[in-house]
Amino acid sequence: MKLTFIHYPISIIVIIIIGYLSFFTPPQPESLTQIPHIDKLVHLCMYGGLTISLWFEYLRQKKTIHWASLFIECIAAPILLSGCIEILQATCTKNRSGDWLDFAANCLGVGLASIGYYYIIYPLHKQKRKNK
What we know:
mainly alpha, 0% strand
């Protein structure tokens, strides 16, 4: 298996956006601070979106699912990225902090997106390929 970045252009863009959002100092609008745990919802959406883009690009290239490579590319890689970013936030920045609950929200986003993609989008994708 040859993994090249050119096969994942959407995911690369999403990773760059996540990297930027993870290290810049966000504005603190008062309306958002009134919503409890809004940042956890943002984490869930960021990593859910990344996982969806990875699944989409993986299935666009492959005719069948190779479970080991799918797990590494679409599930383990976003979780590892998430953990690395949380560690970097805790150790290399003064304006951000690493948070276990952020990491948990990231993992939940990856898990929910994977389950949703597998049970909703993948059957449609498989049916579309069969009809071609």
